[in-house]
Amino acid sequence: MALLRPKNGGFSSILVAVHGRSSDRYAVELACSLLSSKKGALYILYIIEVERGLPLDAEVAEATATAEDALTAMEEVAGPFRCNVEAEMLQSRRAGPAIVQVSANRQVDAIVLGTDLTTRYGSFSLGATVPYVLENAPCKVILWRGELSSNGAAP
Description:
The chain has about 160 residues and is of the alpha/beta class. It has helices at about 25-35, 60-80, 95-105, 130-135, and strands spanning about 15-20, 40-50, 85-90, 110-115, 120, 125, 140-145. It has a single domain, classed as 3-Layer(aba) Sandwich (Rossmann fold), CATH 3.40.50. The protein has four helices and seven strands. Strands 3-2-1-4-7 form a five-stranded parallel sheet, with helices on both faces. It has a two-stranded antiparallel sheet with strand order 5-6. Helix 1 packs across helix 2 and helix 3 (about 95-105) runs parallel beside helix 4 (about 130-135). The longest helix is centred in the middle third of the chain and has 18 residues, at about 60-80. About 30% of the residues are buried.
């Protein structure tokens, strides 16, 4: 873990993109542990992906409620770390470009992404968001993938 820390002892700001999955908790805990003490800023971001058939600002009540619940839960996870937490929900066509744009606007030191073990057509898949962020982020990207259980699936 020490290899991830900047020379001053920690990152001053980190963006964590959450999506309401089990890996969110671990990603937020990791981000909090990488921040430089109580002075660090943690930005928790939930992107609601709006399908192309709807206006970008369409009211998606169920997705909004899910996002609010996820953000509240992640704020509680970050609470004991005593860092400066700001949670935000955005609507976008795709999560990857939104994450990269917010990270650039906030000039964060790093982005932390959590991912669960998923398969597509029988092979491990990172989906579309993680590769996009890895390729386009203006800062460091830290990826958290949960451990495999003995049967090969994520716990």
